[in-house]
Prior knowledge:
Layout: H1 2-18, E1 20-21, H2 22-36, H3 39-47, H4 54-57, H5 59-80, H6 86-107, H7 113-121, H8 124-130, H9 133-152, E2 155-156, H10 160-196, H11 206-220, E3 235-236, E4 246-254, H12 273-278, E5 281-282, E6 286-287, H13 293-302, H14 311-314, H15 320-327, E7 330-335, E8 349-351, E9 361-362, E10 365-366, H16 375-381, E11 386-391, H17 425-451, E12 457-465, E13 470-471, E14 477-478, E15 492-493, E16 495-499, H18 501-506, H19 511-516, E17 522-523, H20 527-534, E18 537-538
Parallel strand pairs: 1-2, 4-11, 4-12, 6-17, 7-8, 7-11
Antiparallel strand pairs: 3-18, 5-16, 6-15, 9-10, 12-16, 13-14
Helix pairs in contact: 2-5, 5-10, 6-9, 7-11
Amino acid sequence: MGDDMAKVFDRREGGRRRAVPAWLLGALVALYMLALLNHTFWHLFVQSFAASGGIAGQLPFALSVGARVVCLELVIVAVVLWPRAGKPLLALLILVAAASAYYMDNFGAWLNREVIESIFETSRAEASAMLTPDMLRWLLLAGVLPAAVVLCVPVRFAPWRRALVTRVVVLLALAGLMAAIAHFGGRTYRYWYRNHRTVYDVYNPYAGLSGTFHYLRRDVFARKRPLVPVGTDATLGPAATADGRKRLLVLVVGETARAQDYSLGGYARDTNPEMARRGVYYFRDTWSCGTATTVSVPCMFSGMTREHFKKAVAMSRWNLLDILQHAGVDVSWRDNDEGCKGVCARVPNEDLTHASVAGLCDSQGCLDDVLLDDLPQQLAKLRPPALLVLHIKGSHGPAYYKRYPPSWARFKPDCETAEVQTCTYPQVVNSYDNTILYTDHNLGRVVDALEALPASYDTAMLYLSDHGESLGEGGIYLHGADWDTAPPQQKHIPMLLWLSPGWKQGSGVDLSCVAAQEGRNLSQDNLFDTVLGLFDVRTRVYRPQLDIFAGCRKGA
């Protein structure tokens, strides 16, 4: 028996000697991610020195910053590489980093907090649209296979006490080296970091881990704030119900429409024939609150303005819809996009993203027609004064070609894939412009439904997009960049207003003054007070300086 035990011991010792030391596996994984899954990061890193003579002109400083980046990669690996859990965590890290690399390298997107939030909150159909054949092939080669190697290779860990001491020493040494680099770099390093800190939004896997941590801390595990009613003094003024008139506003919240592709604003293609024919007011210098739906939608209804917007605060207090409902406006929300982001939580709402309507819906969602086919019946249910919000899918990418029926592919050849980076720029623009044209058609259907109401109704339609979109300009696709550094295509949005003859005559508004507002610099900050003004809601939280038409009312 003693001989048998000795043989088992010898086999174990032999296996341990053949196993890879844990520190070597961690170093190899870190090297793999740095070298092969950080193409976008290294590209931006090199660019960050271009304005000051390039890396060659600042070689010692560039090497020190690069060393700090390597230290951070080693810190991440050291934190996860523990006995038992270490290999699965490393494998998961590789999978996440590979998926992130594909997203960043192919779409030029950054994994900031807003993008991470959008990933967590996107619908299953929208998420599946991103799982293209090219992405799955990349994930297999750059993620699954290396992760499988990590899981299969035998690893030798030190006893846990020694491993703990060693880990602490290594982490302290790396942290000390990072601090020393920042300290001795002095003002040069602080200047570089302040002006180029966004490179960390594409640093793998730090960007995804940091964004996820902040999202979980802020939106998942944060202590829920009690709901604070604001505007509780809100009442309807006489203009809302004067002479028995029935005031009804349809607010259409668009998705991913950018002003650059609106013929109403001077775009060469006729992408807005319906709205031009209807004689709408087009506000050509309007800007979004954020570059992602998860930010812009709560922001535009919060009344907080972009500079002061904090989502956690906004979600814990009444918004525009709550105040209107409290004042006596019949409010309703219908959705065909990614949900109302909590804005419609306390008003009647209907989610049609998973509706089953033949010819309009499939396993990946519905065309915006699903909001319009029964629109006359929905309008008839409202009790004026009333607000109906339609949240459309609009131009949601990257599968632009799925946002319009094949018969609406007016601009050809279009890009018939979600892998827009594989199409030519004209093809991508063609598909995107088809979405704008189709949205214009659907806005025309909204106007048709409003015009069909009885003559006692005063009706209006206000449309604005949540944010814009990049279509490959500068190698950037989609949206979600930090607002301060995002290209104008992601922030400059369309906004337009249609008024019925009855509203024009009975609102007491100088229409020439309204037309003069079309050239003003406006933003989603103006929505809150403008809608309060359209319903003549009297409340202390109303700010006339942000109401687009406050100065146009007779007697103002």
